[in-house]
Structures are given as C-alpha cells and as structure tokens.
Design a protein that fits this description.
Elements: H1 3-9, H2 25-32, E1 39-43, H3 49-58, E2 63-68, H4 71-81, E3 86-90, E4 104-110, H5 118-131, E5 132-143, H6 160-166, E6 171-176, E7 181-187
Length: about 190
Amino acid sequence: MSDCDDRKNVKHHHKGKSSESLLDKQMILEALNIQPGQTVLDAGCGDGYMAKEFANLVTESGRVYALDPDIAAIDELKRETQGTNIEPVVGDITTTTELESHSIDLIYLSTVFHGFSKDQIGGFVAEVQHLLKPKGTLAILEIKKEETPFGPPMEIRFSPAELDQTIPLPSRGVVEVGEPFYMQIFENEV
C-alpha cells in the first residue's frame, strides 16, 4: 500500500492544540519576506496568532485574511481584531472561498496539509491557483516525516520531496522553522 493509499484511511484531529510555542516565528517571517501593502491569507489560521504577525508586516496599507472553518475561532478573532487590517473569514481552503481571484500575494498554511484527503488536496491546489497573484507565494509548514515526540501519524506526513510532487508550483526551497518543523515555499509562475 502506498503512502497516498494510507492517507485516505487515517483520521487525524488537532483537538484544538496549537504549535505556536514550538515554532520559530522570526525565522518564518524572515523566510516569507512579507512587505507593506501585500495581501496575505493565513489558511487554517486557528486562533490567528500568525495572522497577527503578518498584519504588522503588511502594515495598514495591506490586508490579512484569516481563514478557518471553525466558526467559534473566527468569531473570537473578529472580536480581537476589530478595526485592524485583519479580516477573519469562515471558510475552507480546500473548497472555493469568497476571496477575489488572483488577489493574494502569500498563502500560508501551517500544520494542516497532512490532514487533507486526496480530494481535499485537489481542492486546495485549485483554490491556491485561483487565489494567488502572478509570482505569489505559497508557504506550507509541516512536521518532518521522521520520529518526533508529537505529531500526526507517520503515514499521513509529507516529506519536502512528497510536497514537491503534490504541489504543481515550483519550490523555492525548504526552511527549518523549529524542531521538528519545516516550511516549504512555492512560487506561482503565472
């Protein structure tokens, strides 16, 4: 049985846990090179901790969409960020979102991709291609595909090589962003 076959049979739930304290946020932000005026999508944002970091970098001239299917998390984030350049949105990046076509400079996805089914991966890729501006960036942060003290089952994890084969955008490289995390960065060519 291949890894792809294994993925569809394994269920994984985050149970509301956040990897925030384990990530090197400064390394993530440096690698992403976010600029004032950009539009960023934090897909699967959870409580919005990275959306808040991105908002500081895009400044008031930019915008951050914080997207998550968890209505309660988005409602709380709306209360916390009212009057800022963060726009919390209930939605799922593996389906069509309400966001404007080719309007996003950076799509950031943290420790979520491994939980997608094969169909969800297809929907994710389609929506990424729909939303990214030409030369826009996709950043996928994941847990390494090796033994770690926590994380999803090994059979649903992705190595950088597997992500490279799954995402139809050219990879600009892989950055270590805290043990045992890596972030792979892709660029939209069109």
